[in-house]
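Predict structure. Chain length: 116.
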Amino acid sequence: MRFLTVYKPAKPEGTPPTPEEIARMGQLIEEMTKKGTLLSTEGCLPSAKGARVRLKDGKITVTDGPFTEAKELIGGFAIITAKSKDEAIALTKHFLEIAGEGESEIRQLYEQSDFA
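Prediction complete.
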């Protein structure tokens, strides 16, 4: 099963990681890639460089960043593979131990077999 994990850090947006944090995250990414549990991962630039596009009542609006609700800002994502939701939770707990305070949302992704 594949899962999308979305990370929302507790640090203020745009806070750069320390060299130690970069090294620890690099080790985690290498470890998970070798095990085959990490399929893809990326960090997000600050919301000032982004936009929100919304369709409501047939009208599309575009709001340029930065966004004020810091607790809702996405710092990055990963697509992982796990045998179960419990395993995905365990992998995400390990990620948070390396990444630091914040929260991650885990969502299982559809597979082609779900539509058969």
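Summary: Residues 2-115 form a domain with the Alpha-Beta Plaits fold (CATH 3.30.70.1060).
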